[in-house]
Amino acid sequence: MSMNTEKIQMKTPLVEMDGDEMTRILWQMIKDELILPFVELKTLYFDLGLPERERTKDAVTVEAAEAARELGVAVKCATITPNRQRVEEYKLSEMWKSPNGTIRAIMDGTVFRAPILADMEMFRPLVRGWKKPITIARHAYGDIYKATEYRVPEAGRAELVFTNTDGQETYRQTVYDFECPGVLQGSYNKDSSIRSFAHACFRYALDVRQDLWFSTKDTISKQYDQTFKLIFQEIYDTEYKADFERLGLRYFYTLIDDAVARVIRSEGGFVWALKNYDGDVMSDMVSTAFGSLAMMTSVLVSPDGKYEYEAAHGTVTQHYYRYLKGAETSTNPMATIFAWSGALRKRGELDGTPALCDFADKLEAASLKTITDGIMTKDLIGLLSEDYLKKVQAEGRTVEPVTSAVFLSMIRRRLEASL
Ligand code: NAP
Ligand code: MG
User: Fold this and answer.
1) In this structure, are 403 and 344 located in the same domain?
2) What pLDDT score was predicted for residue 29?
3) pTM for the whole thing?
């Protein structure tokens, strides 16, 4: 073993946000097996597990998000968003808000979701032409998520009225003269939020050295969507064009329906920025087509360049209940490992500590190598391509799922060999 006995040093701590259920178990296993033996880990630890959120009346979530703003890089474990059933299960005094929602509001960020691709021959995306990852950048503010809706009960006039802060009515327009019952919706967005979204997208694309696509329906929505398009174009022209051209990258605006058709025909390898609802829908489409939620990473990027890394999936509750009964589970830790490696790499970049970036690269490589060596958790077995399974069969082998613990130990073996 060529392993260097000296641990890699860190300058600035990461903000570490622990979470719930199966992912909390994986979190500790990942740290013990893959991080602590190799890195002199410095973190500012916040326990966002539901019991601690209850104990602190959710203050811990706000403190963690503020620490992330301050230190610039955070790594987060999946957490329970309480619903009525969870209020009973955890005897909560209140139905605490989604931690991700709280953190997003404080960091004012854009969420980027990207698939982890192990081997395109082993796991064929459902869209045959896709060869490289497609990252979805979802604007996580406003639109229908903050809309005011009305179930129109009878005939009558619906109007759009604007009154300025001086109390003057400056705009009034008939939306529709209803002759029968119907539905009505008023949604909004803010220039400041659209600008933040645009900056986060351009920065992220430069960061990962990929083209940026943006799509709306501006031909139909001549004020609302058009405003998004114009703000993106203005910010691109004035602040990012030179950098994009220097790196040979492209900013590409097109109508959303045209974009959908092009995405399906593409090879992938770009960032696709989308309005809130479009991003919600398209990220599920893209992650399903690439294979598995357990192989999707997610990073929240604020307009001033603060980063929070996490897995795109939840706390994998059903596996946790089996774990509590003493069963060994085969839960896939890849997205959580990549949240750690993403955060460590970013910390290394910001602090100018290349050894940390190098470690992150090697951790990812060892994790991918484990899978391409045919060692994987149960969820991935079902996604193997027919060609791969035929090849394995021809060699007289089978692919059997391993437990999370075995999977992590196999990654560790490969990681040690590469250090
Ligand atoms: P989930 O935890 O993502 O799990 C849904 C199903 O997807 C699992 O039952 C499992 O399928 C499969 N799966 C997800 N991740 C996997 C992994 N790493 N390895 C193997 N299989 C995996 O979603 P959920 O059940 O809807 O939500 C559970 C809890 O997570 C909820 O309390 C929710 O509030 C929370 N949540 C948190 C976040 C976050 O913190 N970012 C995001 C989403 C949900 P099988 O059971 O078929 O194996
Ligand atoms: Mg969705």
Assistant:
1) yes
2) 98
3) 0.90
Distance CA 148, CA 308 (A): 30
Q: Which ligand is nearest to the CA of 331?
A: 1
The answer on 70 and 165 residing in a single domain is no
Asked whether residue 141 falls in the same domain as residue 240, the answer is yes
Output the residue whose Cα is nearest ligand 1's atom 24. Answer: 314
pLDDT in tens, 52-107: 999 999 999 999 999 999 999 999 999 999 999 999 999 999 999 999 989 988 88
Q: Residue 233: give the domain boundaries.
A: 124-145+190-290
Kindly give the distance from the C-alpha atom of residue 4 to the centroid of ligand 1, in angstroms, as a whole number.
Answer: 37
Rounded Cα–Cα distance for residues 177 and 180 (Å): 9
The minimum-distance atom of ligand 1 relative to the CA of 78 is 40
CA-wise closest residue to 17 among 64, 50, 58, 55: 64
- Same domain for 348 and 209: no
Q: Which residues line ligand 1 (CB under 6 A)?
A: 78-81, 100, 293-294, 310, 313-318, 331-332, 379
Q: Using an 8 Å Cβ cutoff, are 152 and 287 in contact?
A: no
131 near 269, Cβ under 8 Å? Answer: yes
Which of 195, 196, 213, 194 is closest to 271 using CA atoms?
Answer: 213
